[in-house]
């Protein structure tokens, strides 16, 4: 009822104002104001001012309506008038009505209250209050009661930049304002409206200089994390699991209970074989057993089993493509990805060495040719972390005002803005070049790589052209999907560019077989090495390790295991297979300098404490691996 009265004009006040206006008009005309005319009235039931009176009147049966007020209006109103209406007001008292901001049609029950514009109105005005002092006292009490519902501060406008507070008075509007009971207990910042500030851009500048230019700290991150992490107490030799007893022979010392853990790799292979022959009952049983001993926060083997179990479950349910699409469509900010990248390069040299290998080769050729413009065409630019060190080198070159052009190519994103990721990468690179006073031009291309035309690259005469791809050629489809392989189409496009140097860094793998069991076995062995590397160089509690394994390893495993056809985009080949493709496409391989290989090997030995990283050379290929298993390969090529 109170909520309705807030939005509706008070009929009681409007009747008095109308009567006062009519009386003043009659007096101006010199005529006598007529007596009250009978209007359509309502029954006493509708005029009860309390629930108790309403129930009493309703039970007595007085519910009839009449068009004449002479039968009951005077007597009933005199006897049943509310207590606040029984005190007469002074003769000089004027009751002013507040104008209503809006009007709306009223129900019948409310329209009936407007019937007392006659005898009821006269009687009300003459007998409301006894004197003006009583009215002033009640008005003061009303103000005190109303002030309890008002906010304690009038801070409405805040200057975010200068942090000064401006105060403006409250405005009375026709809208309701519902104050929450717990509003006064909330912090003051809850009610402040501030302009949105993207912490992403503010953090990136410092992170770029700290991570991408000067590299990770010289201390071993593993040692730092192990010192800060709590040490697990050693297992007690006398303890044994509940429900099991340990017996000892005479004279034999008690030994610690060793928990039997099944071979998770063998269970995963058996589960994959059951899935391949559609033996779902056996596969579900093996999968439950794997789930009992796997976790995304366990050791390397348990984490490996966790992500492979997720992929097998998605393949059994037939939702592999949907799950992978959902994982790929998740947008991670550049700041979060840079932090994960920092954790990765601080313990694993693969990506960092691949970047140094490519950037060093470009710098050596630029020194020889001294071009006015360097045009880098990057297939799979992603966040563009590779080029900040090169921009820094260009900025500090003496006697050179070289212009940098970058054509960033990547696959389109899902949604209404397929090129948003590539464009944001260009914006970050442009801001960094502006900071270092390097002339910069960026060309964003977001489409399937095999559909790119030569004119889309906007080549110019006289510029130094370098084509680069950092471990992304594995995402191109091959002959098993399309007759004209997209891999060969992209290589032919690069051959038409006639670049000064072509630097492909590839993921050398063998899990591109069309048969599921063969592919599953190869991808299991490949990621076993990667998870073992992370388990050796990082602690289990490292949050960035969880992010990196989930965003990269987990997503790739999901695609290889649970997707088929064109939806399976993780299709690595060995470096020998890529060499055959490039020779057929019209490229000639350049020799790798032995001095460069020696410098990179010394860099790995100096900055990474683990001795299990492998750096080697096979012909004109620079190879990287872990514990004897080849993982990445890089080389130089030019057009024939």
TrEMBL record:
Region feature (Leucine repeat I (LRI)): 262-322
Family label: Belongs to the GRAS family.
Keywords of the record: Transcription, Transcription regulation
Entry-linked InterPro entries: TF_GRAS
Pfam families listed in its UniProt record: GRAS (PF03514)
Residue span of region Disordered: 33-112, 222-254
Keyword Transcription: yes
Coiled-coil segments on the chain, per record: none
Segments carrying motif VHIID: 374-378
Annotated segments matching region Leucine repeat II (LRII): 424-456
Alphabetized PROSITE patterns for the sequence: GRAS
Location of region: SAW: 562-638
Low complexity bias: start-end ranges: 58-76
Name of the molecule in the record: Scarecrow-like protein 14
UniProt biased composition (Polar residues): 80-104
Organism: Brassica carinata
């Amino acid at each position: 009822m109170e909520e309705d009265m807030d939005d509706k004009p008070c009929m009681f006040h409007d009747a008095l104002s109308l009567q006062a206006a009519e009386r003043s008009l009659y007096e101006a005309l010199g005529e006598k104001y007529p007596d009250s005319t009978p209007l359509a009235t309502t029954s006493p039931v509708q005029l009860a001012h309390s629930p108790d009176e309403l129930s009493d009147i309703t039970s007595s049966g007085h519910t009839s309506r009449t068009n004449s007020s002479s039968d009951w209006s005077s007597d009933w109103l005199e006897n049943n008038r509310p207590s606040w209406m029984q005190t007469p007001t002074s003769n000089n008292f004027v009751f002013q009505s507040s104008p209503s901001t809006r009007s709306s049609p009223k129900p019948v029950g409310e329209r009936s209250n407007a019937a007392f514009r006659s005898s009821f109105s006269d009687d009300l005005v003459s007998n409301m209050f006894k004197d003006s002092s009583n009215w002033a006292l009640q008005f003061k009490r009303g103000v005190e009661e109303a002030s309890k519902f008002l906010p304690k501060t009038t801070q409405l406008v805040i200057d975010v930049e200068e942090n000064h507070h401006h105060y403006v008075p409250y405005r009375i509007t026709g809208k309701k304002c519902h104050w929450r009971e717990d509003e006064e207990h909330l912090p003051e910042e809850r009610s402040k409206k501030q302009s949105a500030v993207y912490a992403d851009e503010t953090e990136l500048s410092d992170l770029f200089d700290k991570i991408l230019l000067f590299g990770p700290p010289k201390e071993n991150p593993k040692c730092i994390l192990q010192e800060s992490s709590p040490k697990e107490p050693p297992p007690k030799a006398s303890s044994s699991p509940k429900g099991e007893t340990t017996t000892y022979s005479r004279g034999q010392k008690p030994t610690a209970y060793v928990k039997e853990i099944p071979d998770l790799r063998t269970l995963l292979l058996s589960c994959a074989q059951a899935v391949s022959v559609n033996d779902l009952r056996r596969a579900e049983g093996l999968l439950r057993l794997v789930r009992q001993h796997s976790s995304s926060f366990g050791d390397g083997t348990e984490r490996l089993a966790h992500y492979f179990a997720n992929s097998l479950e998605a393949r059994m349910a037939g939702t592999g493509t949907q799950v992978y699409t959902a994982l790929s469509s998740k947008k991670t900010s550049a700041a979060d990805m840079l932090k994960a990248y920092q954790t990765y390069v601080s313990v694993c040299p693969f990506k960092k060495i691949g970047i140094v290998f490519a950037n060093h080769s470009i710098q050596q050729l630029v020194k020889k040719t001294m071009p006015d413009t360097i045009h880098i065409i990057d297939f799979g630019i992603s966040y563009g972390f590779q080029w900040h060190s090169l921009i820094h080198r260009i900025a500090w070159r003496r006697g050179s005002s070289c212009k940098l052009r970058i054509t960033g190519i990547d696959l389109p994103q899902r949604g209404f803005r397929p090129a948003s990721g590539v464009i944001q990468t260009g914006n970050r690179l442009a801001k960094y070049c502006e900071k270092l006073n390097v002339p910069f031009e960026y060309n964003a291309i977001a489409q399937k790589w095999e559909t790119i035309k030569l004119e889309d690259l906007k080549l110019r005469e006289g510029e130094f052209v370098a084509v680069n791809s950092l471990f992304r050629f594995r995402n191109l489809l091959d002959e098993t999907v399309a007759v004209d392989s997209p891999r060969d189409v992209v290589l032919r496009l690069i051959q038409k560019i006639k670049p000064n140097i072509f630097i492909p860094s590839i993921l050398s793998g063998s899990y591109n077989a069309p048969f599921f069991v063969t592919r599953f076995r190869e991808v299991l062995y490949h990621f076993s090495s990667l998870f073992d590397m992370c388990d050796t160089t990082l602690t289990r509690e490292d949050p960035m390790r969880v992010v990196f394994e989930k965003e990269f390893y987990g997503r790739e495993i999901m695609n290889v295991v649970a997707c088929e056809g064109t939806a399976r985009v993780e299709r690595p080949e060995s470096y020998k297979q890529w060499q055959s493709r490039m020779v057929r496409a019209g490229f000639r391989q350049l020799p790798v300098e032995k001095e460069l290989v020696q410098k990179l090997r010394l860099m790995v030995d100096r900055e990474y404490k683990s001795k299990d990283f492998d750096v080697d050379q096979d012909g004109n290929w620079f190879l990287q691996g872990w514990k004897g298993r080849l993982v990445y390969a890089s080389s130089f090529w030019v057009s024939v």
